[in-house]
Amino acid sequence: MKIHFLGGARTVTGSCFYLEMPRLRVLVDCGMVQGEDDDATNRGHFAFTPSEIDLLFLTHAHIDHSGLIPRLVRDGFKGRIVTTTATADLVGFMLYDSAHIQESDAVWKTRKALRAGKPPVSPLYTADDVKAAISLFTKVPYGKTGHTGRGLNYRFLDAGHILGSGSLELWFQDSVEEKKILFSGDIGKKGNPILNDPSREADADYVVMESTYGNRLHKGMKETVDELVEVIEVTFRKGGNVIIPAFAIGRTQDILYVLNSLVREKRLSRIHVYVDSPLAEKATETYLAHPECFDEEAKRLLSAASLEDSIKLHFTHSVEESIALNGIRSGAIIIAGGGMCEGGRITHHLKHNLWRPECSVIFSGFQARGTLGRRIVDGARVVHIMGEEIAVRAGIYTLGGFSAHADRKELLEWLSAFRSSPRVFVVHGEAETSLAFADLVRERYHFTTIVPARGEAYEL
Ligand SMILES: [Zn+2]
Question: Ligand 1 centre from 221 Cα, in Å?
């Protein structure tokens, strides 16, 4: 087998691996690039011929792993897309939302282009492409081994990152014997408020492993929750709002769950929480429909009551409802996407609250290089939002404990389960992070480590 690292290599977004076997061509993930040069990269040529790919395995629904699937289908892919049951339930509306963004962007860019005497801009893909993609999905439950009948068997394990997220085990035949490659997918944090802890595997010949937080330690959940309570109390006392950029899937549900528990425990008074994302509302419904993915505590709490029994939870639907939130001066917690502040309704809330010293912005997820979120976290005093200069005066907080990713210690622990000595490809991290983590793995476990660059290929 030959593995090509086509995306998510020395960077965090755009995950895509291409496996060439004698009788089968396979992709693992087909994600969108976010941040620097994203549009040009997402529109660039695939490094393979889509019509020649037999199978695509999808590790989870996040757009940086799934976002180019509709383009793949439009460009000729006709194979099966294999993923877990919950991922298949989530990814459809994620992709429709993405297509909607692509289509509205194209309308806006075309208007600009025509005024400049340039040709119109076509969307990266459309809702029709998403519809065609969805017809190709095959759902498999966690733990069930599937057979392609062409020398490759597969199984998903719970990665504990977001609902439906999987690590993917693949067994293939090399010239002599059967070998196993394990794709970690995005690895969740232990003690995630809702989901099970990530599964750990004991053996593999090769591991392709994420390293998003390979150089950092998160604060514990208790400290994170204490800090959240303090930020909310201080902000409300000062007469401001708390703005939380969050991906529709995962973080939003975790934060709602924690806020709800805090009100029940009387650590916070009944607060108004606005989730300004139709996508997050659908994702929350999908979460509630999959209790089989919850840990015991969440199962108990969520079966007893829905999320809105303690906090005053408002989902906004129309653009008018979203705009109406701009009139709220204080006492609101507003959760909106995109998680890295690149487009989406969050940009409007930042425009209206970021310049106000009495407000706070809480970052709970990884902010990729080149994104507005990263610039704010890195301490920019002024940012540009929708063509307007906005001063950064609000309190900026990063609560890493809410991250959906394992930190350095947990990533190492995940590897410590191996009884074999796999060759480890370290991916899905910024270059310095992946290189430092690979060194650590080599020192600690004496495994051979490789940090592939984008476009590199290795014979397994
Ligand atoms: Zn993810």
Answer: 19
